[in-house]
């Protein structure tokens, strides 16, 4: 029986660009790089994110089955705001969504892979998601 998610493997077109994007935005570190692969970690595991460069790969058509996005939980509202500011500097459009139990930023990485950055805003009362999806101002965090 599995105990946790081991890693996420993402196909990218430009390995150096993807490494720069994920290390700069999320503070991941490269633990190993071989040919068209790079392994990035937050520090506790060899890798949390595997990047594989396949320049010839096509993007899946819109509304197709498959992975919707990869989500990364941040520790503080300030960290979410800082990531939002970094995305703005990169001219990467991010959609801020307040789910009631979390505040999230949804955007695409440079290759069009869906990414979510979020903070958990639940209290200790076992609060459940009630389907709320409203916009919020990340700069007000």
Automatic annotation (TrEMBL):
<dbReference type="GO" id="GO:0051213">
    <property type="term" value="F:dioxygenase activity"/>
</dbReference>
<dbReference type="InterPro" id="IPR029068">
    <property type="entry name" value="Glyas_Bleomycin-R_OHBP_Dase"/>
</dbReference>
<keyword id="KW-0479">Metal-binding</keyword>
<dbReference type="InterPro" id="IPR018146">
    <property type="entry name" value="Glyoxalase_1_CS"/>
</dbReference>
<dbReference type="GO" id="GO:0046872">
    <property type="term" value="F:metal ion binding"/>
</dbReference>
<dbReference type="InterPro" id="IPR004360">
    <property type="entry name" value="Glyas_Fos-R_dOase_dom"/>
</dbReference>
<dbReference type="GO" id="GO:0004462">
    <property type="term" value="F:lactoylglutathione lyase activity"/>
</dbReference>
<dbReference type="Pfam" id="PF00903">
    <property type="entry name" value="Glyoxalase"/>
</dbReference>
<keyword id="KW-0223">Dioxygenase</keyword>
<protein>
    <submittedName>
        <fullName>Biphenyl-2,3-diol 1,2-dioxygenase</fullName>
    </submittedName>
</protein>
<feature type="domain" description="VOC">
    <location>
        <begin position="4"/>
        <end position="120"/>
    </location>
</feature>
<keyword id="KW-0560">Oxidoreductase</keyword>
<dbReference type="InterPro" id="IPR037523">
    <property type="entry name" value="VOC_core"/>
</dbReference>
